[in-house]
Amino acid sequence: MKRLIVTRRRKLASAMMPFWVIPGSKQAFMAQFGLVGDISGHDVFGQPVQRIDMAVLDANGARIRNGEQITLELNDSVCTVFASTQSGSLSNEVLLQGGQVIDGIESYYLNITAKGGFKTISYPWFE
């Protein structure tokens, strides 16, 4: 069993947009849902084009809002994690290694922030 503690930094850009922390391989997720590229496209008004359904994100990950901290219990087989927006913009993929053992459970602490913002599409990014 692994424990993942994710803190989302407060940021004005994309403050209202939830992110989903998704354990597992980003490439497998992209292949499963037919996603091409990390960033979703945008329409003529600069708004992101939806390319993944919110129910899919809720089924595969945990929602995190601006300034929140969440804790996930993961299987030992999970070795990577990434994040997504509702529109389907994906973060970098993080390899879970070098965790601390707390109460007998291997624990990992990650910070997530938003890149992009007012003039470009916001997307999550693990620091």
Describe the fold and architecture.
- It is a single chain.
- The chain has 127 residues and is mainly beta.
- The chain has a single domain, classed as Sandwich (Immunoglobulin-like), CATH 2.60.40.
- Helix content is 12%, strand content 37%.
- The protein has helices spanning 26-33, 54-60, and strands at residues 2-8, 19-23, 62-64, 69-74, 80-85, 94-95, 100-102, 105-115, 123-126.
- The strands form two sheets. Strands 1, 4, 7, 8 and 9 form a five-stranded mixed beta sheet that branches.
- The protein is globular.
Distance between the termini: 24 Å
Number of H/I helices: 2
Average of the residue pLDDT scores: 90
Beta fraction of the residues? Answer: 35-45%
Q: Say what the CATH topology is.
A: Immunoglobulin-like
**What is the C-alpha radius of gyration, as a whole number of Å?**
15 Å
Q: Helix share of residues?
A: 10-25%
Give keywords.
five-stranded mixed beta sheet, single chain, globular, 9 strands, four-stranded antiparallel beta sheet, Immunoglobulin-like, mainly beta, 127 residues
Kindly summarize this structure in a few lines:
This protein has 127 residues and is mainly β. It has helices spanning 26-33, 54-60; strands at residues 2-8, 19-23, 62-64, 69-74, 80-85, 94-95, 100-102, 105-115, 123-126. It contains two helices and nine strands; from the N terminus they run E-E-H-H-E-E-E-E-E-E-E.
